[in-house]
Amino acid sequence: MLRKGITESFGAAIHALNTTKLTDGVISRSKRMMLDTLGVGLIGSRTAVFNKALTYSQSFKSDERSSVWGKSQITLPPPYAAFVNGIAVHSMDFDDTWHPATHPSGAVLPALLALAETLPSRPSGLDLLLAFNVGIEVQGRLMRFSREAFNIPERFHPPSVVGVMGSAAASAKLLALSPAECIHALAIAASSAGAPLANAATQTKPLHIGNAARKGLEAAQLAQMGLEGNPAILDIPSGFGVYYKDYSPSAMTVPASGDFKWMLEDQDIAFKRIPAHLGMHWVVDAALAARAKLENTARNFDLRQIRRVTLRVPPSKYVDCPLPSTEHQARHSFQFNASSALLDNKVTVSSFSEAQINRPALKELLSKVKVETPKDNQPSFDKMYCEVEIETDQGQSYAARCDAFYGHWRKPLSQEDLVDKFSVNASSVLCSEGVEGLIDVVGNMERVRECSILGSYLRLTSSQQ
C-alpha cells in the first residue's frame, strides 16, 4: 500500500474527522476560545481600523449576507463579514495566543460564523465546534513543521501563514467538502498566505487576521466550485515550505477507530488580560510586582525620584519600541507597558488612548527606561521571562521577575475571570440580553440546534450601531 503524501493526508483527515472524535477537554477549551474571541471582536468593533475596513467592505454586494458583530443594521457578503469581524478580533491585540506562536481563533471563528449563516443545512453547535477544532488543529500541526515557529516570529506574522490555512480547513469542514476538495482548499489558501512582520505595530496588522479569515473561506468556496491548486502544496519546499527555513512536514492521520489526539489537548491557550502583544503581559506583571516592593519599603514615594528602570526581556525587534506615538506602537512596546504599569499601578484598555500615551509624566518615565536582553532569556512564549528593576535617586533598587503571567497556559485564566473579561468587552457594545445570550449559547454549544443563533445575539446592541 502506497504511503499518502502530506497534503493528501491532511485532505483525508479534514474530511474524515467527525463529532465523535471531539473530547470533553477539547470542547471545553475551544468554548473558552470562542467566548473570548467574540468578546474581543465586539470591543474591537469600536476601533478606527475596524471602521475603515467596514466602510470599504460595504461597497461589495451579494445575495448572501452575514452579520457584522456589534452592528444591528449592517450585513455583508460572507467573505467580507469574515474580513471585518476578523479585523475586529485583532484590532486591539486582545485575542488569544497559542504555542508555537500564533493567534489561532481570530482567523477561524469569523469565517465559520459568516459561512454558517448562509448554509441551508443550518449547522449545529456541535458542527461548529468540530469545524472550529479542525481549523485550530491544522494550524497547530503546520506550526510544528518548523522549529523556527516555536520562537517569537522574526519574518512573517504567523496568523497570516497558518491562519489562512486553518480558515480554509475549517470552512472546508463546514461545507462538507470531499478529501480532494479539502486538498485544493489548502492549496488555494496557501497562495494567500504570508504577511511581513514589518507591519506589526501598525493599523495593517489586524488585516492579517481579517485576510486570513476571508481568504481561507474563499479558498474553500472556490475548491467547492472545482478550482484546483497544487495537490502537494504541503509536501514541497516551494509550497508551504517557503515560509520556514527548516521545513520538515509530517502526515496528519485519523484512526478509523479509537481516539484522535488533538493538539489543543496537549497545548492550552493563553488569554490576555490587557489589549497588547503577549510579551507585554510578562513585563506588566513584573513591573507591578517591582512597584509593590518599592511602595512597601518607601511609603508615599514620588515616582519622579526614579533614576532608572531596567527591563530584562528576550530579544525581539518588533516589540522594542522606546517612544511609541500611536496606540498600535504602544501595544508592541515593552517600555511603554512597563512605564504605564509603574505610573498607574495597572494597564487597561484606556491605557492605550492618545491622551494616555502623550502624558508628560509617562514620557518622562520612558526616558529613564533601559532594555537588556540576557542570553538566557529565550524569545519563546513558552520559555521567556521578564525582569523589571527600579533604581531610585536615593540609591535603592527594587526588582521583580515574571516567568509566567496570569492567563498564560501554565497559569490559566479561571473560567470566572474569562467570563468577566468577555462581559466587560461585550457590554461596551451589546445590551445585557446580548451579553447573557452569548454566554449561554457558547456555554452550551454542543447542545445548540443551530449555531447561527449567535448572529442574532451579536446584533443586540445597546444602541443603534
TrEMBL record:
InterPro entries: MmgE/PrpD_sf, MmgE/PrpD_sf_1, MmgE/PrpD_sf_2, MmgE_PrpD, MmgE_PrpD_C, MmgE_PrpD_N. One of its GO terms (molecular function) is aconitate decarboxylase activity. Residues 10-244 form the MmgE/PrpD N-terminal domain. Transmembrane segments: none annotated. GO terms for cellular component: mitochondrion. It comes from the Eukaryota. Residues 275-440 form the MmgE/PrpD C-terminal domain. Gene3D superfamilies: 2-methylcitrate dehydratase PrpD (1.10.4100.10). Pfam families: MmgE_PrpD_C, MmgE_PrpD_N. GO terms for biological process: defense response. Belongs to the PrpD family. PANTHER family: 2-METHYLCITRATE DEHYDRATASE-RELATED (PTHR16943), CIS-ACONITATE DECARBOXYLASE (PTHR16943:SF11). This is Cis-aconitate decarboxylase. It comes from Dissostichus eleginoides. The lineage of its organism: Eukaryota, Metazoa, Chordata, Craniata, Vertebrata.
